[in-house]
Amino acid sequence: MEQGVGAADGWVAIPGHLSYEEAATLPCAGVTAWNALFEAAHVKPGDTVLVCAKLEVDDDGNKVDLGYVGDVTEVKVKLIKKEIGDGFMPIVSPVAEGLDGKPYNVNADTAAGRVASALRARRLVYMSDVPGLLSDPKDPASLISTLKIGDVDGLKKKGVIDKGMRPKIHSAIRALQAGVKRVYTPKDFDLTQIMRDIVDVVDRANQAAA
């Protein structure tokens, strides 16, 4: 077992209802978000929005066993629409409930694509720490500004679409095929403003619950 030493205020606790094995499947960002929203801000967790089956095949059709990792099979649209109708901005965590009732980690890009498709959204916007799809990953100026579905297989063979970009592209294709009109990855976005908007949503939720 690996051990580490750090400042007491530099650690966050795992959600109390999860076992260590279940919590180990969650991304660090997911655990941090959980603590920020439900422990620090005292926001009450909502109903399960995503339902999944255990992920057993990867993007290339190869069998895999990644533990508590799932593939979204259902989005509970009525829950999302109700929150929107009540004036709230739904925050959907990329953690889905499996058929066995346990939480499964799902790819955030895939989850976003499935939610957009289920809502019949006109636009799907992905936020990323890179400018977008680059023909040369080392050259930010090699941005591919427009991509058609028919070009994807060729770029995958060339290695242009690889690693972390693959689930983003695959989920974008799924969304387009399901009726979403356009998918964007903006080159520039204000992350600080996005976080302020999220905090504002949390504050309004607390005021409504008070």
Describe the structure.
The N and C termini lie far apart (43 Å). This protein has helices at residues 20-23, 28-40, 77-85, 108-118, 152-157, 165-177, 191-209; strands at residues 50-54, 70-75, 95-98, 103-105, 123-125, 182-184. A hairpin with a 4-residue loop joins strand 3 and strand 4 (103-105). With 210 residues, it is of the alpha/beta class. The model has no long low-confidence stretch (mean pLDDT 76). The protein is 36% helix and 11% strand.
Overview features:
210 residues; alpha/beta; four-stranded mixed sheet; two-stranded parallel sheet; 7 helices; 36% helix
List the helices and strands and how they pair.
Elements: H1 20-23, H2 28-40, E1 50-54, E2 70-75, H3 77-85, E3 95-98, E4 103-105, H4 108-118, E5 123-125, H5 152-157, H6 165-177, E6 182-184, H7 191-209
Parallel strand pairs: 1-3, 5-6
Antiparallel strand pairs: 1-2, 3-4
Give the % helix: 25-40%
Number of strands: 6
Rg on CA atoms, Å: 19 Å
Low-confidence stretches: none
**Major sheet:** 4 strands, mixed
Distance between termini? 43 Å
**Count, helices:** 7
User: What does the average pLDDT come to?
Assistant: 76
Going across the biggest sheet, name each strand in turn.
Answer: 2-1-3-4
